């Protein structure tokens, strides 16, 4: 093995998490392997090229335990789903580092379908995953909701999986309970350094940056602040390829403004940090909250997302399926969902985005940008320039805060809802450093909403969590 | 009014639903001990004992409920908390099998007092709880 | 029977088309019957109310031969489709007045499904259709592609079906071959007078006005000119309830402008004709041309239509199903299609329309309005104020003209295609009186499109007919 | 190059497709006698005779093709025009049954020389026609 590369001083500890995996991870061999991988399988390259050419990319969500089952699913998504990037979602056991349990399961089930909710990337042999990559012959992104994705990333990148969903804040907040910010940032820092090592070999690894968004009506400023911080944390470790999420929240003008504002903010802060060679692309993720149980309504919802993304100038869609409200989607339904989106993408492809001349878009853009900058600046101040340290302090103080977080690091004082046009507004700012004029805007908007309904604020907050799934973005019969 | 221990069970991080239930419980005047995400059976039991809880509300959405909630009733009994009301909710199964099957599994076999489909209005849960608490009050 | 009402001097001839039907048509009895019909079943009333309240209406397309089959289909569309207005499409035999043939068929098949492509409104007993109306208990619209819909209208209105698709120009141009304009206008004039008779009884009958659009990329100015003329023809006979079509053509800004421009023009010309008590509502019909054979893509297409309609301020959607590209849809799929649209309608309900401040919308609005007025003014001049006579002369001279018409009355010299943003443009103006500045706009836009492709104009025209169905509104790899 | 009679058959008004075919035929140098919509069998035959046509292109989309195109070949034969090429296209059936069935009906039983699915590229039709015309030329 070569000398420990920069930022990977913990490598021995990581590899010790599961020796049978570690044995397969020889950096010299890997370097040779990944450089020889064809460019069309490199997520970062495909994203950068699509941004140049204007082709809009689609990526579904999927992950099965068995190799054959997973390969078959990805093949369906490739052939019938017009997918440009294929996902490999990792199972919960792997996310929680329970590799021995997975090994027992694998031993029992052999090649058949496994009772796992994703692909156990650490336990399947490296050669097997390499075969997967070359068989489906598309760029693959590892999707891993974990605060310790280090060994999984080692195995994935070494197999030619060329991108990973990232995560130091997002996965901490929404996928963990007792983990500290410092732990999550350190673990993800390792992954970012590893990604940079690949870039130095000539095979850059992409990051799909989540931001802080959750699955309720979520303010774009807070979502974007998280994305900026995650990009800065990764950029400090040398990462340069960011596909940043701006998820659908439902109000068209706000969602258009959101994508633009987040793109501009990420570019602004990267430049401010002295990074001038980053490639930032924007993802519109479909609604991430509760889905209609009815597939037909779900088709309406994801197609609407596609329109909203196209009018926002999104570079890519990452999409739930129309069976999201029911259970794990079968690959055929997943592919059909992508085709519905593709059709909308095709129709709107030649049409220009919604211009900022639209008053509503312009107003939301200003609002999101002002709030986002206020939050990020406050966090960076707390960290004295270090975004990871700043985030830790900020979560503690409530300068970063998220409603409905899974993690105990969040105070959970922020409350959000929709105004009478369905735009997301703060109902309680918690301790977020939101500028006064923005506060007034939110309060006024919510006042107008509340004036039109007999409901209590509590009832409004609750019902707004269900509104996208039920249909009416703002309940009609109030 | 009672004391309710809440949490998302096992390896489950879906907390939005159970947090809404908590909001409803507090709104209705109950005391809530909220354990959040990724709660192991032992944690439920400890919290129930310490808070002298009347009920445990266990949520599970990720499809693993039948494993992560399996030992909960027994653990409560063992800890001398067998009388505690045990409610379950979220998406207790993978996909949507007939509801009778879900009831057979969680109520008949795993010892839950009540379980709920994800479409349940929170008001329904609250009124069921009130009724159950009243009944317990009488029978003690 | 009462004295022949105004405008119905041909009534005896009409009734003689099929005596068994005629026997059931007693105006005095009918007057009593329709006045007693509940208001919530009156299409015109439901449309007027929805416009006031902002509720957006949905109507599917459907028509089956057998009474039970048709009733069942409408029930599914009502219960599972969230349909506000239910359709009753008439079969081809009835449209061609082949009532004896239908009678033979009915005698053979009894109550079972009939090999007819619609509901034979003239042959089914009046009481049977009345039962249908009261069973489904929703407002019903007769959809009849015919140049002689007189007896069908008699039977339908008498049964409580309270609206009809109209038609003097549209059905002439697209559903007939050798019929003259004068014949079609006279027959439809009869229907309009009949509708007015119902209004005088206190039970107004609605008209769903088509305009001239066809199923290829079709200019909104020409579509709207047809709608204005049809409204004027009907208004002269006393009709006052117009649900006017502005069908999806694919370019969002143009489609938004189209709905507004047509609404404004219809209101303008009705006012100019001295009609100040008309109720004009706007329909966005889903794409009326070739559909994707793939239901998933079709879900994308109709959901896109829903977004476009909502951003246009449409009052109503009339929708094809996602099985349009395959064959007659089954009612379940038809209902699912409506639910997808309903979900989008719900999401966009509280959000304001796209404002005219958008430069593209503003430009298209001006263009459509100028062309539409130029055409209508020329037609009215030719008819010396009489829109029916004017239309006849105009079609003859090519002052009104339609590409791909079925009728020989059309010269068919106009050629259309899409510009590089997918907006519909004239390639050949034929003899249409389009103002010079508009001509220049179209020509410039098409020049830009053609400059970007190696294809001939012919190939562009052909491929644009398939583009909405294939996906890319403008072919990408040119 | 040949002369082709075109039309939408019977009670069918769908003319867009056949008009595109006509454009293609003219483009390729053929003479076209276009009958438009709602064309009865006798009209096809008369036009074919009068124009000494080499081929008749009958289109049908509304699902009635098997009735409206039923007597066409026989009528051509009766009129001494049995040699005329007979092509059909559009959506010849209700729904989408297996293509072999459609061929069995229209080619084997109703005497069409060639029929096409609605996905056919016009170039395909044109090249088939060219080939068929060439063959006929040789065999006469
Ligand atoms: C939001 C969401 C997430 C978020 C969760 C954020 C968070 N920290 O809470 C994130 C993105 C993190 C996530 C992750 C995953 N998710 Co998820 N997720 C969802 C989603 C879209 C909505 C859930 C939700 O918030 N609903 C809204 C709330 C308000 O409703 P609710 O939870 O049902 O709660 C209500 C009632 O059920 C009831 N209730 C709930 N609990 C209880 C308990 C009691 C005692 C009572 C009385 C009542 C009650 O009261 C609530 C108020 O009405 C659903 C799909 C859907 N339903 O549309 C999938 C879904 C639940 N997720 C699923 C999966 C598989 C996962 C992952 C494993 C995916 C992966 N492979 O990466 C991960 C990992 C999660 C883990 N380890 O647990 C699957 C589960 C499959 C199944 N059961 O068959 C679903 C159904 C999606 C799908 N179709 O595949 N998810
Ligand atoms: C546009 C359209 C109409 C328009 C037609 C306008 C006009 N005058 O042409 C209007 C609105 C008038 C109409 C009316 C009706 N229609 Co229509 N219509 C369509 C639609 C949406 C597209 C047809 C089209 O123009 N395609 C585009 C052209 C370019 O493609 P094409 O016709 O297939 O032609 C291509 C090839 O097939 C080939 N080709 C065609 N003909 C021939 C012939 C030969 C010899 C050759 C070699 C090749 C060839 O070349 C063309 C170029 O590539 C289809 C659904 C669909 N396919 O998406 C329904 C459809 C054909 N209609 C249908 C029906 C039922 C009707 C009505 C009866 C509905 C009603 N109940 O009111 C009426 C009445 C029509 C009548 N009496 O004939 C059904 C037919 C059902 C079936 N076959 O199973 C369809 C499939 C819709 C559905 N799903 O229900 N319709």
Which term fits the overall shape of chain A?
Answer: globular
Strand order of the largest sheet of chain A: 1-8-7-6-5-4-3-2
Quaternary form: heterotetramer
Reading the helices and strands of chain A in chain order gives HHHHEHEHHHEHEHHEHEHEHEHHHEEHH
Number of strands of chain B: 5
Q: Mean pLDDT of chain A, nearest integer?
A: 95
Bound molecules: cobalamin
Distance between the termini of chain A: 67 Å
Q: Considering residues with a beta carbon less than 8 A from a beta carbon on another chain, report the largest interface and each chain's count.
A: A-C, 50 and 50 residues
Strand order of the largest sheet of chain B: 2-1-3-4-5
Secondary-structure element pattern of chain B, one letter each: EHEHEHHEHEH
Structure in words:
Chains B, D: InterPro entries: Cobalamin-bd, Cobalamin-bd_sf. Chains B, D: This is B12-binding domain-containing protein. Chains B, D: Pfam families: B12-binding (PF02310). Chain A has about 475 residues and is α/β, with parallel strands linked by helices. Chain A has 19 helices and ten strands. Chain A has helices at about 10-15, 20, 25-35, 45-55, 65-80, 90-95, 100-110, 125-135, 150-160, 170-175, 180-200, 220-235, 250-270, 295-310, 330-350, 360-380, 385-395, 435-450, 455-470; strands at about 55-60, 85-90, 140-145, 165, 205-210, 240-245, 280-285, 315-320, 415-420, 425-430. In chain A, a hairpin with a 5-residue loop joins β9 (about 415-420) and β10 (about 425-430). The longest helix of chain A has 24 residues, at about 360-380. Chain B has about 140 residues and is of the alpha/beta class. Chain B has a domain at about 45-85. Chain B has six helices and five strands, in the order βαβαβααβαβα. Chain B has helices at about 15-25, 40-50, 65-70, 70-80, 100-110, 120-140, and strands at about 5-10, 30-35, 55-60, 85-90, 115. In chain B, β1, α1 (about 15-25) and β2 (about 30-35) form a beta-alpha-beta unit. The chains are: A alpha/beta (about 475), B alpha/beta (about 140). At the A-B interface, α19 of A face α1 of B. The complex binds cobalamin (2 copies). One cobalamin sits at the interface of chains B and A.
């Amino acid at each position: 093995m070569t000398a420990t590369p920069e930022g990977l001083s913990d490598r021995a500890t990581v590899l010790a998490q599961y020796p049978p995996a570690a044995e397969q991870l020889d950096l010299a061999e890997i370097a040779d392997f990944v450089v020889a991988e064809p460019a069309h399988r490199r997520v970062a390259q495909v994203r950068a090229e699509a941004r140049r050419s204007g082709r809009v990319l689609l990526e579904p969500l999927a992950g099965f335990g068995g190799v054959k089952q997973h390969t078959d699913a990805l093949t369906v998504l490739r052939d019938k789903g017009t997918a440009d990037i294929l996902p490999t979602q990792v199972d919960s056991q792997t996310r929680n580092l329970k590799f021995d349990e997975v090994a027992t399961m694998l031993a029992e089930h052999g090649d058949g379908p496994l009772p796992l909710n994703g692909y156990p990337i650490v336990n399947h042999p490296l050669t097997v995953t390499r075969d997967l990559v070359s068989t489906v012959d598309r760029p693959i992104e590892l999707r891993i909701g974990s605060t310790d994705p280090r060994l999984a990333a080692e195995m994935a990148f070494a197999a030619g999986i060329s991108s990973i969903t990232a995560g130091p804040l997002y996965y901490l907040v929404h996928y963990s309970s007792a983990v500290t910010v410092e732990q999550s940032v350190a673990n993800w820092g390792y992954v970012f350094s590893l990604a940079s090592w690949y870039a130095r070999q000539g095979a850059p690894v992409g990051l799909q940056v989540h931001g802080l968004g959750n699955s309720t009506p979520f303010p774009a400023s807070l979502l974007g602040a998280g994305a900026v911080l995650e990009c800065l944390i990764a950029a400090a470790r040398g990462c340069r390829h960011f596909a940043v999420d701006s998820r659908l929240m439902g109000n068209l003008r706000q969602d258009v403004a959101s994508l633009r504002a987040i793109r501009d903010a990420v570019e602004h802060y990267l430049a401010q940090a002295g990074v001038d060679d980053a490639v930032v692309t924007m993802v519109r993720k479909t609604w991430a909250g509760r889905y209609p149980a009815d597939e037909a309504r779900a088709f309406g919802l994801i197609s609407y997302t596609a329109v909203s993304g196209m009018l926002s100038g999104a570079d890519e869609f990452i999409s739930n399926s129309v069976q999201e409200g029911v259970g794990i989607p079968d690959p055929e339904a997943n592919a059909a969902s992508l085709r519905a989106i593709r059709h909308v993408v095709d129709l709107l492809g030649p049409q220009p985005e919604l211009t900022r001349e639209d008053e509503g878009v312009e107003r939301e853009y200003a609002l999101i940008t002002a709030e986002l900058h206020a939050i990020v600046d406050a966090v960076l101040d707390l960290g004295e320039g270090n975004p990871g340290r700043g985030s830790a302090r900020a979560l503690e103080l409530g300068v970063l805060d998220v409603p409905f977080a899974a993690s105990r690091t969040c105070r959970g004082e922020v409350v959000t809802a929709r105004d009478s046009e369905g735009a997301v507004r703060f109902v309680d700012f918690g301790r977020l450093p939101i500028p006064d004029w923005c506060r007034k805007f939110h309060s006024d908007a919510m006042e107008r909403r509340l004036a039109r309904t007999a409901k209590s604020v509590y009832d409004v907050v609750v019902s707004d969590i269900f509104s996208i799934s039920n249909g009416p973005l703002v309940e009609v019969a109030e | 009014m009672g004391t309710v221990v809440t949490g998302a069970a096992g390896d489950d991080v879906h907390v939005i639903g159970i947090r809404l239930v908590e909001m409803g419980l507090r709104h209705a005047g109950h005391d809530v001990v909220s354990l959040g995400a990724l709660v192991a059976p032992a944690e439920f039991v400890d919290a129930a004992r310490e808070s002298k809880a009347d009920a445990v509300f266990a949520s599970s959405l990720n499809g693993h409920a039948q494993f992560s909630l399996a030992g909960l009733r027994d653990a409560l009994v063992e800890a001398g908390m067998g009388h505690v009301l045990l409610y379950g909710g979220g998406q207790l199964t993978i996909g949507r099998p007939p509801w009778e099957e879900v009831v057979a599994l969680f109520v008949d076999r795993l010892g839950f007092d009540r379980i709920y489909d994800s479409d349940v209005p929170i008001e329904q849960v609250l009124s069921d709880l009130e009724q159950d608490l009243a009944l317990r009050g009488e029978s003690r």
